[in-house]
């Protein structure tokens, strides 16, 4: 099996602000006008965007949220756990990976405005996924979590918040 450095070089991945490495691979030519979008958006958006995203074993995807829905697709490497803090205050985790018999999934949908982050299950390996965002990703729609504020909002989940902020 290939190592993380192979994929980083082969796919020309760059460091991502939330942790890990990424490269945008698709940005729709179709544009959505601000007036056709929910009021949480300011400005026009691309209909859909897609990236490659790689986390090395000990790296984390820090808790963040988007104004759009995001779908994570498992490609290769270690299983990966996506940690989600829902708008109703519950904590969910979804394991992406190749073994459906062990309750792993090939993809996970994270609804807009939910805090989420990710960890690689095998700290000696890596995970390569794809992330699709609709309406398309815009850094104006991205918010990195503040640990203190998140713990105030989700006090019963402080362990995972401390780990992913």
Please characterize this protein's 3D structure.
- The chain has 165 residues and is mainly beta.
- It has one domain: Sandwich (Jelly Rolls).
- Helices cover 12% and strands 43% of the residues.
- The strands form 3 sheets. It has a 6-stranded antiparallel β-sheet. A 5-stranded antiparallel β-sheet has the order 9-8-11-6-13, with no helix packed on it. It has a two-stranded antiparallel ribbon with strand order 3-4.
- A hairpin with a 5-residue loop joins strand 1 and strand 2 (21-27).
List the helices and strands and how they pair.
Elements: H1 4-10, E1 14-15, E2 21-27, E3 31-32, E4 45-46, E5 49-56, E6 60-66, E7 69-77, E8 80-85, E9 91-96, E10 107-110, E11 115-120, E12 126-134, E13 142-144, H2 147-153, H3 158-163
Antiparallel strand pairs: 1-2, 2-5, 3-4, 5-12, 6-11, 6-13, 7-10, 7-12, 8-9, 8-11
Terminal Cα separation, in Å?
Answer: 31 Å
Q: Give the tally of β-strands.
A: 13
- State mean pLDDT (0 to 100 scale): 96
Task: Give the assembly state of these chains.
Answer: single chain
For the record, the CATH architecture stands as: Sandwich
CATH class: Mainly Beta
Tell me the strand percentage band. 35-45%
> Please, how many domains?
1
From the spread of the alpha carbons, the general shape counts as globular
Sheet bearing the most strands, described?
6 strands, antiparallel
**Parts with pLDDT < 50 across at least 5 consecutive residues:** none
Helix/strand-derived category reads mainly beta
Number of H- or I-type helical stretches: 3
Order of helices and strands: HEEEEEEEEEEEEEHH
CATH topology-level fold name: Jelly Rolls
Cα gyration radius (Å): 16 Å
Spatially, the strands of the biggest sheet line up as 1-2-5-12-7-10
Which percent bin holds the helix content?
10-25%
What is the CATH homologous superfamily assignment? Jelly Rolls
């Amino acid at each position: 099996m290939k190592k993380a450095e192979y994929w980083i070089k082969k796919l020309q991945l760059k460091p991502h602000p939330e942790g890990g490495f990424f490269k945008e691979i698709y940005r729709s030519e179709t544009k959505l006008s601000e007036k056709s979008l929910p009021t949480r958006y300011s400005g026009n958006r691309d209909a859909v965007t897609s990236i490659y995203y790689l986390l090395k074993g000990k790296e984390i995807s820090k808790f963040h949220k988007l104004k759009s829905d995001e779908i994570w697709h498992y490609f290769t490497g270690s299983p990966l756990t996506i940690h989600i803090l829902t708008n109703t205050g519950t904590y969910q985790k979804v394991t992406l990976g190749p073994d459906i018999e062990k309750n792993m999934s090939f993809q996970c949908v994270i609804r807009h405005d939910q805090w989420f982050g990710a960890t690689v299950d095998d700290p000696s390996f890596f995970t390569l996924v794809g992330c699709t965002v609709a309406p398309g990703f815009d850094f104006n729609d991205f918010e990195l979590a503040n640990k203190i504020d998140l713990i105030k909002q989700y006090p019963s989940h402080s362990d995972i918040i401390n780990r992913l902020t």
